[in-house]
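Posting this for the archive.
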Amino acid sequence: MTRRAPGALEAEVMGVLWAAPGPVSPEQVRQQLPGDLAYTTVMTILVRLVDKGAAIRRQQGRCYVYEPRLDQAGLTAQRMRSLLEEDRDQPGVLSRFVEGLDPSATATLRRALGRRGGP
């Protein structure tokens, strides 16, 4: 059995949630994923996504259904913030990040900061 890369199953589950026309049950998610995953594995991933703020869970009848809370850009931004918060040298990380941006991305960042009221 081939192991998935770290975070790959979460990404696959989020893909299912984004593609769904509405809230889906864990079993519906499981059926959309490749391989023969256990129901409990899918449930664990969904609970983790709710805990991380990436998905929403609500009760529908006797079971829970799930839907995305964040779009793909929102999820990526959340991951970036999480990584930044883990580092002690946030100014250094931000400086190196900005230095590595191409001019187009730098202009986008400047516009976003301008809308936010930043420098």
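The first helix runs from residue 8 to 19. The first strand starts at residue 55 and ends at 60.
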